[in-house]
Amino acid sequence: MTNKIIEYLDELYPDAHCELNYEKDYELLIAVVLSAQCTDKRVNQVTKELFQNRTLQDINDLDIKEIERIIRPVGTHTRKSCYIKEISKSLLENYQGTVPNNRKYLESLNGVGHKTCNVVLSNLYDVPCIAVDTHVSRVAKRLNFAKETDDVKMIEQKLMKKFPKEKWSKLHHQLVLFGRYNCKSLKPNCESCKLKEECKYFKAIK
Question: What angle in degrees, to the nearest 10, is found between the helix axes of 40-51 and 25-34?
């Protein structure tokens, strides 16, 4: 079953990667924080203005009302603008403006949870991680890797037990893309899916 999934996801998304646009390490961290309860597409729209011709010091020096104006389309912009200011200040004061390979520190930052940290460390430092978002959670439950009542931490642990460690980081991106474009919440592409016979959602609608 796991080999079949790996082979199919490799077929669909051989070059799976993060769809958030960034050039610098701190840009990825801020973009992932902004992506909470928001689509990557919308985040990319606001970060295009937020990051353009700005260093981390420039972002730190921005008036918070200006940050709120820029990121308003991503939702909860008041709270997220505070996160951006706090993260920028902390990185500049503690790590010369770079994002460290330090989970304990990153998860101590407001707005940076376990999932966000997984995404950042996986992309920046190739740390083996499976970040469980709504897409990964949905796919894991439909393919019977997790129960409907499992929280994201439980789903993460179950997926890590099922799949080889060296596959985790790429698998995370593949599962996100599979959930986003194939195994969608509404009107998933079941008929063309090679995993439908293992999918409890498909079995339920047959």
Answer: 130
pLDDT at 1: 79
Active-site residue flag, 61: no
At 97, is the secondary structure helix, strand, or coil?
Answer: coil
Q: What is the pLDDT of residues 79-117, one digit of tens each?
A: 999 999 999 999 999 999 999 999 999 999 999 999 999
Note if 89 is an active site residue: no
Rg from Cα positions in the chain: 18
Q: Are the C-beta atoms of residues 96 and 121 closer than 8 Å to each other?
A: no
Distance CA(44)–CA(106), nearest Å, equals 22
pTM of the model: 0.91
DSSP readout, 35-96? Answer: TTTS-HHHHHHHHHHHHTT--HHHHHHS-HHHHHHHHGGGS-HHHHHHHHHHHHHHHHHHHT
The identity of residue 43, as a single letter, is: V
DSSP character at residue 20 = S
Considering 25, 80, 85, 115, which one is annotated as catalytic?
115
**Catalytic position from the list 80, 133, 141, 196:** 133
Q: How far apart are CA 74 and CA 31, in angstroms?
A: 10
CA distance readout (Å), 178 to 11, 21, 25, 51, 97:
11, 19, 26, 29, 34
